[in-house]
Design goal:
heterodimer; A: mainly alpha; globular; B: alpha+beta; 6-stranded mixed beta sheet; 5-stranded antiparallel beta sheet
């Protein structure tokens, strides 16, 4: 038995693939449905963009679905899915910073207005500092301060040693704080 | 910072995050989840042709770009350039069936990258793409193999005579009628019997015949996974190759060994006699790509080594933003090596900080600009000054490009 119960149509032009939901995938669906809102919010806060968050969750669901058989422990679903999602978000942040596409007119950017995730960043001077963080630091900050995870749990989710998590958080705090101090001193002038 | 201020700052930061009321997942996501079984099937087989080409382009790009450089009257790029497998048939001549245009992306690993990922666990539990040179010696007059092991994933004597290596070479050779395996890193994939009726796999094996005498390695891009359920059949004392065998899910693309070489770029780059002025975005082309601006040691006043209008189809590599640009674009190549982004940490291993450098390009039309790099020119520059050549800045693990 292959690990995936998705039976593919061998013909690229053929009819849609038939598939069979086994117990693993049924369980996956239940857990994913339960965690969907939280996952979307987590991606939104990390990415600061609702449309991109939706894409990221879709990608993570797809990846997770295909790897569902590797989920041995139901209790570990959230950590397992978070890891897939967070990795995807981090990749998106990196791509965003490495290759940028600049729209001619900001009004063409569908995410420019009414984006709840962008709004929470833009209305708070401290959170605006998130933009100065690199993707790794930003992910750790969101997992720590928004998701309220312990450092050990963050290390599990991002697949890094505890020391790396601590150092990223430390650097992120310094950056955020220095930006806040700079803003405050400029406001006083 | 004193402790009180630290505490205040912590509280301030936490409350800033929690002050906002965030929306639930949109209904579309719920529908997507409900439809996931179908979406997984449909998207799985819809890896875009160009995505597959893009992955192969990492190997082909330098040679192809040398030809393309004729447009600008130059022949090479920067000290970071890596040699590429030669001779290089045209990926466009691949007989792979065309696939639909939906976009699903997978991380593409080289052979050594995949093996490293298997060791450190980073490639487990997900579908990944593997790029390498495949050869197959399973048939013919070589010393016979004993009966295969009972477990399907166990690496049998025959299994070791087929697989992928990183450079243009075979998995071994025949010396005096005896099989001699390569000493290079190799992946011996498992081909599920059910996969062998897949037309793409049939087409692949039709050009990668079992040829024990003069096998020609073929560039192939496979999709597959580790941790297959078949590993449960491995004996208790099984060696890792059985427990950790790479199982093929699909052949995404491959190169026909008899395909013609890539033709040299010819013709005028712009379809009009008097090309227009460069798009205004080009003014930003040489500005730092770091979020924090220029870093010490960054190039001062970098210039373009070449620039001009080309048809987008003439650009021999995939880049993000391509679909948003018009058919005729303005391309500039930044002279010398250029930093491609911010400092980041090695995701595995040392955790050292580095930045990606390479030969940067700007590709623009009047609507916007993409800022990719030339494949094969990238390297990591670490804080202590040492460099590691190769790699894909999009690859989260930073594994060297094949």
């Amino acid at each position: 038995m292959p690990v995936l119960s998705v039976a593919r149509d061998p013909s690229p032009e053929g009819s849609e693939a038939e598939l069979r939901l086994d117990a693993t995938h049924e369980r996956f669906m239940q857990l994913a449905r339960r965690d969907l809102d939280r996952a979307y919010r987590l991606a939104g806060v990390i990415l600061g963009d609702a449309l991109e968050a939706e894409d990221a969750v879709q990608d993570a669901l797809l990846r997770a679905w295909r790897s569902a058989a590797s989920l041995r422990d139901v209790e570990g679903f959230q950590a397992w899915f978070d890891r897939i999602l967070v990795n995807g978000c981090r990749d998106r942040l990196r791509r965003r910073r490495t290759v940028r596409f600049i729209p001619l007119d900001a009004s063409h950017d569908p995410s420019a207005s009414g984006d709840p995730f962008r709004a929470i960043v833009e209305r708070d001077a401290l959170l605006m500092g998130l933009r100065a963080l690199n993707p790794d630091e930003r992910v750790v900050v969101v997992l720590y301060y928004w998701a309220d995870l312990r450092l050990e749990d963050i290390a599990t989710r991002i697949g890094s040693p505890l020391g790396t998590v601590k150092s990223r958080l430390h650097r992120a705090r310094i950056t955020l704080r220095s930006r806040l101090d700079t803003d405050a001193s400029e406001a006083q002038r | 910072m004193n402790d009180d201020l630290d505490l205040l700052f912590e509280r301030r930061l936490r409350s800033a995050f929690h002050a906002a009321s965030l929306p639930p997942a949109p209904a579309r996501l719920g529908s997507f989840l409900d439809d996931l079984p179908h979406a997984a099937g449909a998207r799985r087989r819809s890896v875009p042709r160009m995505a597959a080409f893009g992955a192969l382009a990492a190997g082909f790009a330098v040679v192809a770009f040398l030809a393309w450089g004729a447009i600008f009257g130059q022949g090479g790029f920067g000290p970071g350039s890596e040699p590429t497998p030669t001779p290089t048939p045209s990926p466009s001549a691949s007989p792979s069936p065309s696939l639909s245009a939906a976009s699903t992306t997978f991380t593409v690993y080289s052979v050594s990258g995949l093996l490293a990922g298997r060791t450190d666990g980073t490639v487990r539990g997900q579908l990944v793409d593997l790029y390498g040179w495949f050869s197959d010696f399973r048939g013919g007059p070589i010393d016979p193999c004993p009966t295969p092991n009972a477990a399907a994933l166990a690496l049998s004597c025959l299994d070791r005579r087929q697989g992928l290596v990183e450079a243009e070479a075979t998995v071994g050779g025949v010396v005096d009628g005896r099989w001699v395996p390569t000493a290079d890193p190799v992946v011996h994939p498992y081909w599920p019997p059910s996969l062998l009726s897949n037309p793409r796999v049939v087409a692949f094996f039709s050009v990668a015949p079992v040829d024990p005498v003069t096998p020609r390695p073929i560039v192939v891009l496979l999709n597959g996974h580790f941790e297959d359920a078949l590993a449960a059949d491995c004996p208790a004392d099984a060696s890792p190759p059985c427990l950790d065998r790479f199982v093929v899910d699909d052949v995404i693309s491959f190169d026909h060994p008899t395909a013609a070489p890539t033709p040299a770029a010819v013709g005028t780059p712009f379809p009009f006699d008097s090309p227009p002025v460069p798009p205004k975005w080009m003014a930003n082309c040489t500005k730092p790509r770091s979020q924090t601006g220029a870093e010490p040691g960054d190039p001062v006043a970098p210039a373009n080594s070449s620039a001009g209008w080309v048809r987008k189809s003439q650009i021999p590599f995939e880049f993000v933003g391509s679909l948003m640009l018009k058919d005729v674009v303005y391309v500039a190549i930044i002279e010398g090596d250029f930093p491609l982004g911010d400092w980041r940490e090695e995701p595995v291993g040392s955790g050292q900080r580095f930045r990606w450098w390479g030969t940067a390009a700007c590709i623009a039309d009047d609507n916007g600009m993409a800022t990719p790099w030339l494949p094969g020119t990238t390297y990591k520059l670490f804080e202590d000054g040492h460099r590691v050549l190769g790699g894909d800045p999009f690859d989260p693990l930073g594994t060297p490009a094949p």
